Amino acid sequence: xxxxxxxxxxxxxxxxxxxxxxxxxxxxxxxxxxxxxxxxxxxxxxxxxxxxxxxxxxxxxxxxxxxxxxxxxxxxxxxxxxxxxxxxxxxxxxxxxxxxxxxxxxxxxxxxxxxxxxxxxxxxxxxxxxxxxxxxxxxxxxxxxxxxxxxxxxxxxxxxxxxxxxxxxxxxxxxxxxxxxxxxxxxxxxxxxxxxxxxxxxxxxxxxxxxxxxxxxxxxxxxxxxxxxxxxxxxxxxxxxxxxxxxxxxxxxxxxxxxxxxxxxxxxxxxxxxxxxxxxxxxxxxxxxxxxxxxxxxxxxxxxxxxxxxxxxxxxxxxxxxxxxxxxxxxxxxxxxxxxxxxxxxxxxxxxxxxxxxxxxxxxxxxxxxxxxxxxxxxxxxxxxxxxxxxxxxxxxxxxxxxxxxxxxxxxxxxxxxxxxxxxxxxxxxxxxxxxxxxxx
Length: 441
Ligand code: ACO
Prior knowledge:
There is one protein chain. It is built from 18 helices and six strands. By secondary structure, the protein is mainly alpha-helical. A three-stranded antiparallel beta sheet has the order 1-2-3. The chain is globular, with a radius of gyration of 24 Å. The mean pLDDT is 93. Acetyl coenzyme *A binds next to helix 17. Acetyl coenzyme *A (ACO) binds next to helix 17.
């Protein structure tokens, strides 16, 4: 039986902080994580004082104690289960990183083979599910299709709707979602273009199989370049998890009501869709294209992004957590250079992006607010080089983020975390009476 939630869980109690308000005085435990992060445990605050804390946007609120991903935003550190993202990006593949995130350890060869075989086995969609695609208009937003179809997959796997999955059941459900999300994505792309579906080929690796379903034709198999497969693996690795971001917190929020895994990740897709989160990769390319087509200089665009009355942002810049640099942005920028060289491509948008970055990093507005390129600033250029069209960018992010969402859903249940239910400070009208319509002014 999972333990009932304890706010501090296994983290060390490192002392107490005192809260004093009028004649209320309470001692609050200070909890220390394994990397020295400190948090004030307010689990009992309302019970003991009648007060709550107020933190819209949750920038100062820890919603859980987790063992999956560590980020130090000041130092630009990102580690999954302790292993730096730089090492994973250089030495690993997406499926191995997914295993690490999902199950807490690097897999042995036998474990990785078993997981890969499960992914290969479950890539196909039930034929009834394939028919669902004909119900969407050709120009439907791919993120809407992805979210709807992930929820629809649950209709064909009722055996996994029970939230108390044993280890084997969890792996089986996970393999289905991680494998099918890629098939749904590829079919969405093809349906929008009026092309026939290309079924998965179980003999291909994860990324190669995705590219096969996207770009093969009934009369011609997609020719895979090793550099493209590597670049796609890297893109997915860099998106695999990012602790309590908006979409992951959404998955946890939904899962906290004990909603099943399929509906929880489907909600994650919806949260990711927004331009301030996963939708930013698409917005970056749109921004770069508009700078190009309108013949603007980088400086002119930066001036617009700084002017609050314009409602324009420098997309792909800034991050809630990273305040010096986003380590993923550094890794992806290097890979973009390599891929473009191998493919002998010269993307004019890359030149505009580099100019924007250089000038923004020398501009007091961006420097003083600690705004640096995030992973989305260069990821769009990488996706373009792979051949992924703009409308599929955020879907690509969702495929990559799947292991992170699933691992967080599992952790929430393993911790038997309470249902997520924030409070509020009410600031509306105080008690007043109903006025009949004929007496209203
Ligand atoms: N361009 C111009 N100004 C910016 C930008 C930007 N990209 N980002 C933040 N600012 C400004 C804000 O207007 C604010 O200015 P002020 O202090 O004068 O009011 C200041 O910098 C602080 O910004 P916040 O809004 O407090 O930052 P927050 O942590 O709430 O938001 C976010 C972070 C959403 C990423 C924001 O920086 C942004 O909108 N960036 C552009 C969109 C983007 O790239 N999103 C991808 C995020 S990464 C990801 O999801 C993988």
